Amino acid sequence: MRNFTIDGDAFRLDGEEFRVLSGALHYFRVLPEQWSHRLRMLRAMGLNTVETYVPWDLHEPRKGEFQRLEELAAFLDAAAAEGLLAIVRPGPYICAEWDNGGLPSWLTAELGLRVRTRDAEYLSHVERFFDEVVPLIAERQVTKGGNVIMVQVENEYGSYGSDALYLRHLTDDLIAHGIEVPLATSDGADDFFLTGGAVPGVLATVNFGSGPEAAFAKLREHRPDGPLMCMEFWCGWFDHWGHGHVTRDAADAADTLERILAAGASVNLYMAHGGTNFGTSAGANRVGELADGEYRATTTSYDYDAPIDERGAPTEKFWRFREVLSRYNSDIPDLPPLPETLPATRVPLTGSVGLRDALDQLAGPSVTAALPPSFEDLGLTHGLVLYQVEVPGPRRPYRLRVRGVHDRAHLYVDGEQAAVLERGGEEPVLEVAGPARLEVLVESMGRTNYGPALGERKGLMAPIMHDRQYLHGVTARPVPLRELPALPYGEGLSAAVPALFRGELEVERPADGFLALPGWGKGYVWVNGFLLGRYWDRGPQRTLYVPWPLLRAGANEIVILELDRAGEPALEIRPTAELG
Predict the structure, then answer these.
(1) What is the tens place of the pLDDT at every residue in 311-369?
(2) Active site residue 16
(3) Residues in domain Beta-galactosidase 1-like first all-beta (predicted)?
(4) Catalytic entry in 60, 82, 232, 443
(5) Residue 578 in contact with residue 514, Cβ under 8 Å?
(6) Among 469, 392, 467, 468, which residue's Cα sits nearest to residue 430?
């Protein structure tokens, strides 16, 4: 068996001084068939360790129902097979630009601000999660013949709270579950963060994108002893819908990496390879000093301007990092071959069905209540909810008020679209006479993953009003967007949006591609039943990555759910990404 320890200001692996050269690669943002290639790319960049979060919501989407735990175990085993050590960050909160920071929506709906505290009910849920997840990590520690060298306690807790008893409880619980390699915390390099998030006796690390000298000096003020480590060196950044694509100069990032290593520190590149926010997993952020301002949803792509791009190709940043890391690691193999890409192809769309005509196949049972139930009340994590309510009559036109939309909605009056409503947008001036039938089709985007707005609900957060009068007796029908059932498509594209459209992509053999929808508005794409994620003409992302394992030789079904506007009667497969 091996051991990994802290000895004064150094890490030691099997007694020898060791520098951790790590890169973040999340198993849940990369298909399992692609793990080996991406892990080999990390080694070829000069890294000796891989780091991953563990998203609670992925593994316990409904209370007490665990799934996909084998993926965490398999990923750590795959990393070991490629000669990489591992750092695991099981949360329970992870941020990661992931929906709700990885906390299940049922949990935050039930407990609100009691999460991430010493609250006994919250900790009982954490205990159940740890019971399932932590033993998988513990049995893969280097002390047990595996490759895990470090486990993180919570995540950037100093950016959120000051409950030292909570952090101590998590620390003790990890140890009780068999963690014997070093534990660590990670926080911003400031008094505020370090005094809120550090745990006595546990290695403190710092997160930053620049200024390593000042960051490590601040860490030394709080921890005079122990190894220096940047747990998150932000070498790129993520994108929000409706805002510009963020990049970082490769030379500048490489210079900062060089300075981190010249200081004698260990490092974890965040991200080494970003991957993709498949399905509805992307989170959201709130702007402002208190992270409670304008809402901004994160894109489907999590390319992150990382040194290894979304499909696993090396970038200029990769080559510059490899040059720096080669001075600190002599064991750097050649790059693995890059998977092929599909040729540019135009795929005709041949069938369609209106969303209303497909509700019996797509939607869950209707619920009627006095006020609009939230997604969480309906047991829905993400997707659509069709709310219906009647305006009494006869009465003359009065102002209709639809407020508290989380996050986007199409309003219909007697079957005709009257407005599109957006969270934070202006409320339309709309007068409606009674009697009338109102329908509000609400779409959720990502839940805020950072700051005090954590744990928000989705749906209509306020009752619909006709002038000063609440409209009671609301029927809600949830539409989960998961794997698609068989749908009653008609030939041609005559279905009016919102509608689903289908086509077939013929391929000789599976290869990577990028899917574009010129002229289309906003919606979702499935490939052979797998939900790739959201698209939106607002940008900056203009293509969706289609990984080769989703395809098969011959015909491949592609389905589009368009909410706003149908474009050209075809989609495009392109060999390169367009991220903005």
Answers:
(1) 999 999 999 999 999 999 999 999 999 999 999 999 999 999 999 999 999 999 999 99
(2) no
(3) 372-478
(4) 232
(5) yes
(6) 467
